[in-house]
Amino acid sequence: MPVVILGPVVHWRSALAAILRQMEIATIDTDDVFEGVAAIRSVASAIAVLHSELPPDELAVFLKATARHGGDVTVVLAGTTHDLDPRWSDLLARRFENPWLFMDIAAWVAAREPARAASQPALTELHPGATLPATQALPDLTQPAERTLVPKGPLDREALVRLRRLARHEDYFTLLSLPRHATAETVQEVAAGWLRLLQPEALSTDILDSLLDAVKEVRGAIQDAGMVLSDPRSRELYVANARSNSQQVAGEPTTGSAESE
Asked: 40, 73 in Cβ contact below 8 A?
């Protein structure tokens, strides 16, 4: 069961999709409501995460399509909207007040998506309205063909603030909006793209005057991310350390820990 991420904010879609893919959940992220509708029509069941900054009429189009879907489509809204007709808002399974709490959204999706990528349907291989036997073997979407993910600008205030939030999340893959299988060449290309957008000449005077500290913080984090993830040894240590830290937070024992004196 794939996850369709629909919204006009590319940084939000990419970051959430990267986290879900790290959890081995197949995703398609788009800003085109009709592409989103086509995606859910191509599968028997799906989860859709919609950003509230979508125009109300586009939200309604997508929700109407899910209402006509013959299978199982669960729709959640990231953020709040006050302009959606109650007839369609009732189709939402849940609302997340803060669309930038990626881990909360991802955990909710994962709890309702127990099947992992090996049992995900290929969105491009099913015709509209197709249904699949539960026992049918399905292709693996965890290793999609590498594609250029270089960001495009210019950056506005909102995008910069959100990048700073991602930088403080301390997940380099999420910061760069990359899956964990991204090659070193892709890492370098994407990091260089972000750094170009953060050059003083590429930023507005307003951002340089009021958010210069944020610019420096994000630039430093992206430089670190690019260096660490493009070097095989540094990347291996980073991933291992991140896994160890997550185990400690969860209360799981880690090997080689020093005993208390």
From this structure: yes
Nearest to 19 by CA among 169, 148, 144, 179: 179
Q: How many domains does the structure of the chain reveal?
A: 2
CA distance 1 to 127: 15
Residue 113 sits in the same domain as residue 169: no
First to last CA, the chain: 50
Per-residue confidence at 257, pLDDT binned at 50, 70, 90?
very low
Helices 10-22, 157-168: axis angle to 10 degrees equals 20
0.90 exceeded by pTM: no
Last residue of a domain, one of 91, 119, 147: 119
Residue 147 lies in a domain: no
d(C-alpha 75, C-alpha 59), whole Å: 11
What's the CATH code of the domain at 166?
A: 1.10.287.110
